Amino acid sequence: MKLQRIDPDVPMPTYAHEGDAGFDLFAREAVTMQPGEQVQVKTGIALHIPDGYVGLVWDKSGLSHRHALKTLGGVVDAGYRGEVMVGLVNLGDEPYTVEKHHKVAQMLIQKVERAEFDVVASLDESARGHGSFGSTGK
After folding, report:
1. Rounded CA separation 25/105 (Å)
2. CA 20 to 30 Å from 56, out of 14, 29, 77, 113?
């Protein structure tokens, strides 16, 4: 996959371990988030994701579990050529600073299946039917 280094000082994306699904993305600059605040964190890279694939941005487990940081809107389409940005929200009770060059998220590259839609008057029945949130019990 082609990668453009917008900021050559930012560490290259890396897989931390053999067999990891996602590679780490690093913060281009320090960003402090207050509780409840949303920010966009620059990563200093742009990608040429091949057609038929997508980059999915996911939480770093340590940041989400220890500091209540959650990624937002993590779809990077194959046609996008701008800087990869990571949307984060601080769901915790304390301010948190993402330090420059620290891991901020991880990206998975996955194959894309495109759906074709067939408009129908009604849908086939299923065991779940119209059961919505909470319909399967506790």
Report:
1. 5
2. 29
Whole-number Å distance between alpha carbons of 29 and 86 = 12
Question: Residue 105: which H helix or E strand, with range?
Answer: strand 103-111
CATH topology for 2-111 is: Deoxyuridine 5'-Triphosphate Nucleotidohydrolase; Chain A (2.70.40)
Task: Tokens for 4, please give them.
Answer: 């453009």
What tens digit of pLDDT does each residue of 46-78 get? 999 999 999 999 999 999 999 999 999 899 999
CA pseudo-torsion sign 95, 99, 46, 49: negative
In order of 5, 16, 88, 94, the CA distances from 57 in angstroms are 18, 16, 11, 24
